[in-house]
Amino acid sequence: MTTLSDRSIIITGAGSGIGRAIAQEAAAAGAHIIVSDLNQDTANETVELIQRASGHATAVAGDVSSPEVVDQLVAAATSAGPLLGLVNNAGVMDDFAGAAETTDATWELCMRVNVTAPFMLTRAVLPHLLEAGKGSIVNMGSEAGLRGGAAGAAYTSSKHALVGLTKSTAFQYARQNVRVNAIMPGGVETNIIETDYSKLNQAGLAVMGPLHQTATRMAQPSEISALAVFLLSDAASNVSGAIIPCDAGWSAG
Ligand code: ADP
Questions:
Q1: ipTM (interface predicted TM)
Q2: Is 19 in the pocket of ligand 1 (CB under 6 A)?
């Protein structure tokens, strides 16, 4: 059985969807979770869900692209236990616009939340992982990080950049036993996709993998969190720099 009982783990965007599912599952495996979200109420709810299941968690609300919040997250994690894990999951979607129609504001927001914040958090946690001699960073990518047909220019560019951060960090710190991987989900039933599902359909974009098209459903967050918890655990000791589709076969087409 997977155990994470010796560590604290920062999970961003853990107030809903995929992040909340990872937080609950990692807490069930014994980790102390630092629940990060922009939304104080949903962060608190995730902590309550974890505590009701006898797990350990602390909420830290705030914008994860702010240096002060990054410092708060690391401080909370190191006081809760050895900081050995980070899940860069907080993300914002674009409006499916191509480059010609993408505004500066949309571009800047996608880059700041989806790329700059993961970079800042990676930089902030690395000294702790290096000192511990092990650690795992999981970056939440997207099928839009693998190909050009799943979102607009800003989101697609940001998720491709996250792949670069994943590979660079994995390669640079492999000898120090720090592992860095990315999960590339297809359509998952969360707020981020519910809002824009009709737009996706209008654009004729595939949000469901072939397996799910036959089942007429999107993936559940728990189908992503199982992989994330594996990657966080020592059971994944030989997996680093991997960009792993978790999309029921969509990207295989
Ligand atoms: P998904 O689970 O598919 O990523 P959600 O919209 O359910 O989609 O979850 C994304 C989470 O990321 C939300 O809870 C949202 O509040 C959070 N989030 C978005 N931007 C930020 C930010 N700048 N800082 C912290 N959390 C953020």
A1: 0.97
A2: yes
